[in-house]
Amino acid sequence: MDMSKLTGTFATPFAAKYMTQLCKHWAHKGAAEWTDTAGSVTLPFGHLSFQATEDRLMATVTLAEGSDATTAKEVMDSHLQRFAFREGFEQMQWADTG
Length: 98
Fold this sequence. Notes:
Elements lengths: L4 E7 L3 H12 L5 E3 L3 E6 L2 E7 L3 E8 L5 H15 L9 E4 L2
Antiparallel strand pairs: 1-5, 1-6, 2-3, 3-4, 4-5
């Protein structure tokens, strides 16, 4: 079985802050862990891996079987819209990598 993967990128100087917020927020829904530069969480639609650099937040989503990319993107983007509202965040730059 070939799982679909998506990669999202958000240029921001607050990448580590947003990654930590996302992981903490979703920790009640599934296994979550994070450091200053990397994080991961498992949600019903798939597994998310994060990388935070000085100027960029990157997320890789490995979709669970039967899940669709649109839902995954909407969940990520809607949460970041709340956390990054001061930056006028609308959506990550998404690429289908798998």
